[in-house]
Amino acid sequence: MQFVLASQSPARLALLRSAGLDPAVFVSGVDEDAVADSLTDPAPAELVMALAAAKAEAVLDQVAAAHPDAVVVACDSMLNIGGTMVGKPADPDTARQRWAAMAGSSGELFTGHTVVRLDGGTRAKEASGSMSTAVRFGTPSAAEVDAYVASGEPLHVAGGFTIDGLGGWFVEGLNGDHTSVIGLSLPLTRRLLAEVGVSVVDLWRPPAS
């Protein structure tokens, strides 16, 4: 059975590879703003789960054609800071403004997950869930924020920060699952895989001979 990651995130792919998987990657191209706008006052977990479900749905036909027996995993992450859910900054100025609000404070990173099992190219089972992790931000100087924004990294990640890249220098601590902050919760994904009848250990790459 093929494990499929419905995401173009290099961090999610690297995380899964480090955890013993060799995912096939299918990029959904979902209009996230349109999905969010279709919801009426969603709770944070509801919002990220709806976005993850839309991403999984968008790639199912392509996956079924290429890998009739597969599990598709899609995720979406957003940061709740000051009661506002934010995704990727639209531009460098937005990233600077985000860091001005985040510096010295805490936020909650929500990641929604959808797992769809395909048997013989047909949707067989589906499971979904979300994980939240509290993030304590440091207080980088204006020069450090400028350098971080200039690197381009915060423009491509939810909340405008990472813990597994340059942004890790400016995160003081976490309360919860660190892999969820990277973009995909390994423990939650394991549980969701089990719900659709797949053991993660059966997906691990074989040991090198």
Q: What report would you give on this structure?
A:
The protein has 209 residues and is α/β, with parallel strands linked by helices. The protein contains 7 helices and 7 strands, in the order E-H-E-H-H-E-E-H-E-E-H-E-H-H. The protein has helices at residues 10-18, 32-37, 44-66, 92-102, 142-151, 178-182, 186-195; strands at residues 2-5, 24-25, 70-81, 84-86, 106-119, 122-137, 171-175. Strands 1, 2, 3, 4, 5, 6 and 7 form a 7-stranded mixed sheet that branches. Helix 4 (92-102) crosses helix 5 (142-151). It is globular. The model has no long low-confidence stretch (mean pLDDT 94).
Key descriptive features of the protein:
single chain; 209 residues; alpha/beta; seven-stranded mixed beta sheet; 7 helices; 7 strands; 35% helix; 27% strand
Summarize the structure.
This protein has 209 residues and is α/β, with parallel strands linked by helices. It is built from 7 helices and 7 strands.
| Helix percent band | 25-40%
Strand content: 25-35%
- Largest sheet entry: 7 strands, mixed
Distance between the termini: 21 Å
What is the overall pLDDT average? 94
Shape: globular
Low-confidence stretches: none
Radius of gyration: 17 Å
Summarize the helix and strand pattern as letters: EHEHHEEHEEHEHH
Please count the helical segments: 7
Structural class: alpha/beta
Strand tally is 7
Helix and strand arrangement:
Layout: E1 2-5, H1 10-18, E2 24-25, H2 32-37, H3 44-66, E3 70-81, E4 84-86, H4 92-102, E5 106-119, E6 122-137, H5 142-151, E7 171-175, H6 178-182, H7 186-195
Parallel strand pairs: 1-2, 1-3
Antiparallel strand pairs: 3-4, 3-5, 5-6, 6-7
